[in-house]
Amino acid sequence: MEFFVHSVEETFNIGKQLGELCNSEDIICLIGDLGTGKTHLTKGFATGLKIDEYITSPTFNIVNEYHSGRLTLYHFDVYRVNDPDEISAIGFDEYIFGEGVSIIEWANYIEELIPKNFLNIEIEKVPSLGENVRKITLTPHGEQYDYIKEIII
């Protein structure tokens, strides 16, 4: 499923809808270059989960935990991970197989650690259509992600 968004607000809105629909143990893999909107989508996702904490990218922490919503959100940023063992050492499996929802920015860096069931979200800049235009592609891997069919811009 593909969407073309023209603003940060539209990116946020897709994330919000996903957060409203997601379930415990969902794994959301975000892929996209720097500045494409991965963290904005995550902020929307957190809003959809009714998380009232300020969301920041965990660039230097690897993972931030947010417990104030209807489900716990584990927000990973693995951009600076040089070795998959580094992410395993922080208890990655306990997070992604836990009761919360895991969002993993730069998930393509640790593909070998991602379970077979996940929702892949790729965000790409589309400069030919405008400076702020992004193509967001949602690709479910597993039937539990059928809720993406309900997403609208």
TrEMBL record:
Family, per entry: Belongs to the TsaE family.
Tree of life domain: Bacteria
Matches recorded under SUPFAM superfamilies: P-loop containing nucleoside triphosphate hydrolases (SSF52540)
NCBIfam families the UniProt entry points to: T6A_YjeE
Record GO biological process: tRNA threonylcarbamoyladenosine modification
Name this polypeptide is given: tRNA threonylcarbamoyladenosine biosynthesis protein TsaE
GO CC, any one term: cytoplasm
Record-level Gene Ontology MF annotations: ATP binding; metal ion binding
Alphabetized UniProt keyword annotations: ATP-binding, Cytoplasm, Magnesium, Metal-binding, Nucleotide-binding, tRNA processing
Subcellular location: Cytoplasm
tRNA processing among keywords: yes
